[in-house]
Amino acid sequence: MEEEKEFLSQDEVDALLDGIGGEGAASDGAPLPQGDIRPYDPTSRDYLAETRLPVLENINEKFSRALRIALSEFLKINCDLTISPIRIMKYAELVHGIPAITGISVFSLVPLTGYGALFIDHNTTAVFIDSLFGGGGRAGKDLASRAYTPIEVRVVEKVSLLILECYQKFWTDVHPVEFSYLKTETEKQFVSICRPEDPVVMVSLNIKINQSGGEVIICLPFAAFEPILSLLAKATDEENASADRNWLRLLSAQVQSAEVELNANLGTATIPLRQILEMQPGDFIPISVPSTVSAMVDGFPLMDCNFGISNGQYSLRVEKIIPQNQQENLHGSHNGNR
What we know:
It is built from 10 helices and 11 strands. By secondary structure, the chain is α+β, with helices and mostly antiparallel strands.
């Protein structure tokens, strides 16, 4: 009976072990080609520091204007609202700056994955309640450690529903998302929408009523946006239009500073070639002088002018600017007369 052959020879086993322990070596011992290959660490989030989401910024700007009106109508008092640029940070970093006792509303992001959270601190909730009951939007005192009352929890729910409904409208044209309210908690230790090290997008709303106010924070998991990241990272129409306007302004300034040669034909004469050949120094050529002459640049007539002498120099006085739609026709006629 023949001996069973080894599945791998000792040389093949040694080659595999070398390949596992080696750093960037190919199976034949040759180094890997460099080219455009760059190291990539799938666990690193360093690229988030440079991530820009102009479409999301545009959504937030429109949302903030609409929410200011909606909140003013809900509270029956005029309120000012400003939105800060979005920030991308770790969830643990965001939660670290949130008071322990805070109104937190959790919501889903269908069809995106994950959950979002709305943080409405105690002071802002007190301002809302004072406004709803006819006050001037005054904030309470010593609220940081006090538990939420049932009325305060209900106000947090109402305001959260209002914010989510308003925010959802401005996602429709970009990528329809349904922000569905799920629950409200009043202690941050009971809410965790993602792991502490996971990145989140923070949208900060600064609300001011008279001399009081506070901050409302919308927290969205960055992982939920990864399927539509290319869509959110596109330049908006406003950015494209702004870039076009800047380019046109620069081009216009450069064109206006360019020097051009202005010509004016003061007279013409039609004579036989024989007469030109017989001419001698001192001979005169009779010309017909028009009442107005055209000032031209590169053969295009721009102005009708009278000519004369001003300050001892031959000069043109502009009588009429030729409309642009007539310049092309006159350009052809002038070229035909040459």
